[in-house]
Amino acid sequence: MLPKDPSKIEAYRQKLRDKKLGTIPYNKGQKGVSEETHKKMVLARNDGRVTGIYTRTAETRIKNSIGNKDKKRTEEQRKHISEGHIGMIYTEERNLRVSIGVKNYVKTEEHCKHIRESKIGIPQTEESNRKRSESESGAKHHNWQGGKSFEPYGLEFNDELREQIRTRDNHQCQECFKFQRDLRTKKGKEYLLMIHHIDYNKRNNNSDNLITLCRICHAKTNYRRKDWEEYFKVRLWIKEVARDQSCSHRSESCSDHE
Ligand SMILES: [Zn+2]
Hints:
Blueprint: H1 9-20, H2 35-45, H3 58-68, H4 75-85, H5 92-103, H6 109-119, H7 126-136, H8 159-168, E1 194-197, E2 210-213, H9 215-220, H10 225-249
Antiparallel strand pairs: 1-2
Bound molecules: zinc ion.
Zinc ion binds next to α9.
Protein backbone atom coordinates (compact mmCIF):
# COMPACT_ATOMS: atom_id res chain seq x y z
CA MET A 1 0.00 0.00 0.00
CA LEU A 2 1.19 3.48 -0.84
CA PRO A 3 2.06 5.23 2.45
CA LYS A 4 -0.16 8.17 3.35
CA ASP A 5 2.77 10.30 4.46
CA PRO A 6 4.04 11.94 1.22
CA SER A 7 7.61 12.07 2.50
CA LYS A 8 7.67 8.28 2.67
CA ILE A 9 6.41 7.66 -0.87
CA GLU A 10 9.78 7.91 -2.60
CA ALA A 11 11.38 5.47 -0.15
CA TYR A 12 8.49 3.08 -0.67
CA ARG A 13 8.89 3.25 -4.40
CA GLN A 14 12.61 2.61 -4.15
CA LYS A 15 11.85 -0.45 -2.03
CA LEU A 16 9.56 -1.77 -4.74
CA ARG A 17 12.21 -1.14 -7.40
CA ASP A 18 14.85 -2.95 -5.36
CA LYS A 19 12.53 -5.86 -4.87
CA LYS A 20 11.96 -6.18 -8.60
CA LEU A 21 15.61 -5.84 -9.49
CA GLY A 22 16.90 -8.98 -11.17
CA THR A 23 13.53 -10.71 -11.39
CA ILE A 24 12.17 -11.70 -14.76
CA PRO A 25 8.85 -10.11 -15.76
CA TYR A 26 6.09 -12.69 -15.91
CA ASN A 27 5.37 -11.79 -19.53
CA LYS A 28 8.94 -11.75 -20.77
CA GLY A 29 9.14 -13.23 -24.25
CA GLN A 30 5.37 -13.46 -24.59
CA LYS A 31 3.93 -11.91 -27.70
CA GLY A 32 0.65 -10.08 -27.16
CA VAL A 33 -2.28 -11.36 -25.13
CA SER A 34 -5.25 -13.46 -26.08
CA GLU A 35 -8.33 -11.73 -27.34
CA GLU A 36 -10.15 -12.56 -24.13
CA THR A 37 -7.42 -11.15 -21.92
CA HIS A 38 -7.31 -8.04 -24.04
CA LYS A 39 -11.03 -7.54 -23.58
CA LYS A 40 -10.67 -7.95 -19.83
CA MET A 41 -7.84 -5.42 -19.77
CA VAL A 42 -9.86 -2.84 -21.68
CA LEU A 43 -12.82 -3.33 -19.37
CA ALA A 44 -10.64 -3.00 -16.28
CA ARG A 45 -9.10 0.17 -17.68
CA ASN A 46 -12.50 1.67 -18.26
CA ASP A 47 -13.70 0.71 -14.76
CA GLY A 48 -16.48 -1.13 -16.53
CA ARG A 49 -17.95 2.09 -17.86
CA VAL A 50 -20.25 1.45 -20.76
CA THR A 51 -19.23 4.45 -22.82
CA GLY A 52 -15.75 3.06 -23.29
CA ILE A 53 -14.15 6.47 -23.51
CA TYR A 54 -11.08 6.24 -21.37
CA THR A 55 -10.13 9.65 -20.09
CA ARG A 56 -7.10 10.44 -18.00
CA THR A 57 -7.50 13.00 -15.29
CA ALA A 58 -5.66 16.26 -15.75
CA GLU A 59 -3.39 15.24 -12.90
CA THR A 60 -2.40 11.97 -14.59
CA ARG A 61 -1.77 13.78 -17.86
CA ILE A 62 0.57 16.21 -16.18
CA LYS A 63 2.37 13.40 -14.36
CA ASN A 64 2.80 11.46 -17.61
CA SER A 65 3.95 14.50 -19.47
CA ILE A 66 6.59 15.29 -16.85
CA GLY A 67 7.68 11.66 -16.80
CA ASN A 68 8.04 11.56 -20.58
CA LYS A 69 9.76 14.88 -20.94
CA ASP A 70 13.19 14.67 -22.56
CA LYS A 71 12.85 10.90 -22.66
CA LYS A 72 14.47 9.62 -25.84
CA ARG A 73 13.60 6.16 -27.09
CA THR A 74 16.48 4.05 -28.35
CA GLU A 75 16.52 2.73 -31.87
CA GLU A 76 15.70 -0.70 -30.46
CA GLN A 77 12.70 0.55 -28.46
CA ARG A 78 11.38 2.36 -31.51
CA LYS A 79 11.69 -0.79 -33.59
CA HIS A 80 9.92 -2.73 -30.88
CA ILE A 81 7.00 -0.30 -30.76
CA SER A 82 6.74 -0.15 -34.50
CA GLU A 83 6.66 -3.94 -34.78
CA GLY A 84 3.98 -4.06 -32.10
CA HIS A 85 1.75 -1.94 -34.28
CA ILE A 86 2.02 -4.18 -37.31
CA GLY A 87 -1.27 -5.88 -38.05
CA MET A 88 -3.10 -3.88 -35.40
CA ILE A 89 -6.75 -3.44 -36.20
CA TYR A 90 -8.24 -0.04 -35.53
CA THR A 91 -11.86 -0.52 -34.63
CA GLU A 92 -14.42 2.18 -35.26
CA GLU A 93 -14.82 2.52 -31.51
CA ARG A 94 -11.13 3.10 -31.07
CA ASN A 95 -11.08 5.71 -33.82
CA LEU A 96 -13.97 7.48 -32.12
CA ARG A 97 -12.12 7.43 -28.83
CA VAL A 98 -9.05 8.93 -30.45
CA SER A 99 -11.05 11.54 -32.28
CA ILE A 100 -12.79 12.67 -29.09
CA GLY A 101 -9.48 12.65 -27.27
CA VAL A 102 -7.88 14.82 -29.91
CA LYS A 103 -10.85 17.15 -29.97
CA ASN A 104 -10.58 17.83 -26.24
CA TYR A 105 -6.86 18.26 -26.30
CA VAL A 106 -5.62 21.82 -26.41
CA LYS A 107 -2.11 22.24 -27.77
CA THR A 108 0.06 24.78 -26.07
CA GLU A 109 2.26 27.13 -28.08
CA GLU A 110 5.26 25.16 -26.87
CA HIS A 111 3.73 21.93 -28.08
CA CYS A 112 3.05 23.41 -31.54
CA LYS A 113 6.63 24.58 -31.74
CA HIS A 114 7.80 21.12 -30.77
CA ILE A 115 5.75 19.52 -33.52
CA ARG A 116 6.97 22.05 -36.10
CA GLU A 117 10.58 21.47 -35.17
CA SER A 118 10.27 17.71 -35.13
CA LYS A 119 9.09 17.84 -38.74
CA ILE A 120 11.97 19.93 -39.98
CA GLY A 121 14.25 17.96 -42.21
CA ILE A 122 11.81 15.15 -42.88
CA PRO A 123 11.53 15.09 -46.64
CA GLN A 124 7.99 14.86 -48.00
CA THR A 125 8.15 13.00 -51.24
CA GLU A 126 5.31 12.96 -53.71
CA GLU A 127 4.91 9.31 -52.86
CA SER A 128 4.59 9.91 -49.11
CA ASN A 129 2.15 12.76 -49.66
CA ARG A 130 0.02 10.61 -51.90
CA LYS A 131 0.08 7.74 -49.42
CA ARG A 132 -0.94 9.97 -46.55
CA SER A 133 -3.72 11.59 -48.51
CA GLU A 134 -5.04 8.19 -49.58
CA SER A 135 -4.95 6.89 -46.04
CA GLU A 136 -6.94 9.84 -44.74
CA SER A 137 -9.48 10.51 -47.43
CA GLY A 138 -13.09 9.43 -47.74
CA ALA A 139 -14.18 6.37 -45.81
CA LYS A 140 -10.75 6.02 -44.24
CA HIS A 141 -10.97 9.38 -42.48
CA HIS A 142 -11.61 9.06 -38.75
CA ASN A 143 -14.61 11.37 -39.01
CA TRP A 144 -16.16 9.78 -42.10
CA GLN A 145 -19.94 10.13 -41.89
CA GLY A 146 -20.85 7.64 -44.57
CA GLY A 147 -20.78 10.04 -47.52
CA LYS A 148 -23.38 12.48 -46.18
CA SER A 149 -21.62 15.51 -47.62
CA PHE A 150 -22.19 14.17 -51.13
CA GLU A 151 -25.95 14.04 -50.62
CA PRO A 152 -27.89 16.80 -52.34
CA TYR A 153 -29.73 19.53 -50.45
CA GLY A 154 -33.49 19.70 -50.79
CA LEU A 155 -34.68 22.10 -53.51
CA GLU A 156 -36.24 24.44 -50.98
CA PHE A 157 -32.83 25.12 -49.42
CA ASN A 158 -32.20 28.11 -51.69
CA ASP A 159 -30.74 31.60 -51.31
CA GLU A 160 -34.08 33.00 -50.25
CA LEU A 161 -34.54 30.55 -47.39
CA ARG A 162 -30.95 31.03 -46.29
CA GLU A 163 -31.43 34.78 -46.19
CA GLN A 164 -34.65 34.35 -44.18
CA ILE A 165 -32.79 32.36 -41.54
CA ARG A 166 -29.96 34.92 -41.42
CA THR A 167 -32.51 37.65 -40.86
CA ARG A 168 -34.30 35.64 -38.17
CA ASP A 169 -30.93 35.18 -36.42
CA ASN A 170 -30.17 38.89 -36.60
CA HIS A 171 -27.31 38.33 -39.10
CA GLN A 172 -25.21 36.93 -36.30
CA CYS A 173 -23.46 33.63 -35.77
CA GLN A 174 -25.64 31.94 -33.16
CA GLU A 175 -22.65 30.37 -31.45
CA CYS A 176 -20.04 33.14 -31.13
CA PHE A 177 -22.43 36.03 -32.00
CA LYS A 178 -20.13 37.61 -34.54
CA PHE A 179 -21.99 39.90 -36.94
CA GLN A 180 -22.10 39.33 -40.68
CA ARG A 181 -20.24 42.60 -41.29
CA ASP A 182 -17.27 41.41 -39.17
CA LEU A 183 -16.74 38.09 -40.91
CA ARG A 184 -13.54 37.44 -42.87
CA THR A 185 -11.79 34.27 -43.99
CA LYS A 186 -8.22 33.61 -42.91
CA LYS A 187 -7.10 35.37 -46.08
CA GLY A 188 -9.22 38.40 -45.25
CA LYS A 189 -12.04 37.78 -47.73
CA GLU A 190 -15.63 38.57 -46.80
CA TYR A 191 -18.10 35.69 -46.76
CA LEU A 192 -21.76 35.07 -45.99
CA LEU A 193 -22.96 33.50 -42.74
CA MET A 194 -23.63 29.81 -43.20
CA ILE A 195 -26.87 27.97 -42.52
CA HIS A 196 -26.41 24.80 -40.53
CA HIS A 197 -28.79 21.81 -40.48
CA ILE A 198 -29.21 21.06 -36.80
CA ASP A 199 -30.08 17.38 -37.29
CA TYR A 200 -27.49 17.04 -40.12
CA ASN A 201 -30.27 16.04 -42.52
CA LYS A 202 -29.94 18.24 -45.58
CA ARG A 203 -33.49 17.50 -46.62
CA ASN A 204 -35.01 18.74 -43.40
CA ASN A 205 -35.30 22.43 -44.24
CA ASN A 206 -37.84 23.43 -41.61
CA SER A 207 -36.83 26.69 -40.03
CA ASP A 208 -36.57 24.97 -36.63
CA ASN A 209 -33.87 22.76 -38.09
CA LEU A 210 -31.78 25.65 -39.45
CA ILE A 211 -29.44 27.95 -37.60
CA THR A 212 -26.95 30.64 -38.64
CA LEU A 213 -23.25 30.03 -37.99
CA CYS A 214 -19.94 31.54 -38.98
CA ARG A 215 -17.40 29.34 -40.77
CA ILE A 216 -15.36 28.65 -37.67
CA CYS A 217 -18.31 27.60 -35.54
CA HIS A 218 -19.76 25.60 -38.42
CA ALA A 219 -16.55 23.63 -38.74
CA LYS A 220 -16.77 22.69 -35.09
CA THR A 221 -20.11 21.00 -35.69
CA ASN A 222 -18.43 18.29 -37.77
CA TYR A 223 -17.39 16.62 -34.55
CA ARG A 224 -19.52 15.42 -31.64
CA ARG A 225 -22.58 15.74 -33.80
CA LYS A 226 -25.06 14.35 -31.27
CA ASP A 227 -23.95 16.90 -28.68
CA TRP A 228 -24.26 19.82 -31.09
CA GLU A 229 -27.68 18.66 -32.24
CA GLU A 230 -29.03 18.63 -28.70
CA TYR A 231 -27.36 21.93 -27.93
CA PHE A 232 -28.79 23.85 -30.90
CA LYS A 233 -32.26 22.38 -30.42
CA VAL A 234 -32.32 23.69 -26.88
CA ARG A 235 -30.92 27.04 -27.99
CA LEU A 236 -33.58 27.56 -30.63
CA TRP A 237 -36.28 26.46 -28.23
CA ILE A 238 -35.16 28.99 -25.59
CA LYS A 239 -35.11 31.71 -28.24
CA GLU A 240 -38.60 30.78 -29.33
CA VAL A 241 -39.95 30.90 -25.78
CA ALA A 242 -38.28 34.25 -25.11
CA ARG A 243 -39.77 35.68 -28.30
CA ASP A 244 -43.24 34.40 -27.44
CA GLN A 245 -43.08 36.00 -24.03
CA SER A 246 -41.85 39.36 -25.26
CA CYS A 247 -44.64 39.36 -27.85
CA SER A 248 -47.38 38.56 -25.37
CA HIS A 249 -46.26 41.55 -23.33
CA ARG A 250 -46.63 43.80 -26.34
CA SER A 251 -49.75 44.42 -28.38
CA GLU A 252 -51.89 41.68 -29.83
CA SER A 253 -51.00 42.82 -33.31
CA CYS A 254 -47.63 41.17 -33.11
CA SER A 255 -46.98 39.75 -36.57
CA ASP A 256 -44.03 37.57 -35.70
CA HIS A 257 -46.15 34.44 -35.60
CA GLU A 258 -47.68 33.20 -38.73
ZN1 LIG B 1 -19.28 31.74 -34.85
